[in-house]
């Protein structure tokens, strides 16, 4: 179990290390592009949801408790990026199979006409 820490006051939420590693990549890429967004997450203790406004001026930390970095699922990263760019912002969605194309991806044409 890892921890997402938001702002200097230390507001935080616990998130599984594997999920947190994927969220870190999405947040890093969005901020690298200077894109602010909302991050909405359910509290693990059943106390509801919290929304965090993510922008480059807010200090963030991703604290991982595991010693080894998890394997990254590219399909999950792509789907999380699509969600983060949507009207409701980033939220944790279920991890897809690695060989499953992202929801917004276009499949290549099949058959002889594709040649």
From TrEMBL:
Annotated InterPro entries: DUF7882 (IPR057204)
Keyword tags: Ligase
Region of interest called Disordered, as start-end residue ranges on this chain: 91-115
GO molecular function, one term: ligase activity
Record-annotated DUF7882 domain positions: 1-95
Organism domain of life: Bacteria
Biased segments, Low complexity type: 101-115
Pfam short name (any one): DUF7882
Protein name: ATP-dependent DNA ligase
UniProt source species: Microbacterium hominis
Lineage: Bacteria, Bacillati, Actinomycetota, Actinomycetes, Micrococcales
């Amino acid at each position: 179990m890892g921890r997402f820490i938001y702002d200097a006051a230390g507001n935080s939420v616990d998130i599984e290390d594997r999920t947190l590693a994927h969220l870190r990549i999405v947040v890093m890429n969005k901020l690298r592009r200077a894109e602010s967004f909302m991050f909405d997450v359910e509290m693990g203790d059943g106390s509801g949801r919290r929304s965090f406004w993510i922008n480059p001026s807010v200090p963030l930390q991703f604290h991982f408790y595991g010693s080894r970095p998890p394997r990254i699922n590219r399909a999950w990263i792509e789907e999380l990026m699509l969600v983060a760019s949507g009207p409701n912002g980033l939220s944790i969605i279920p991890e897809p199979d690695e060989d499953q194309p992202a929801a917004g991806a276009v499949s290549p044409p099949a058959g002889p006409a594709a040649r």
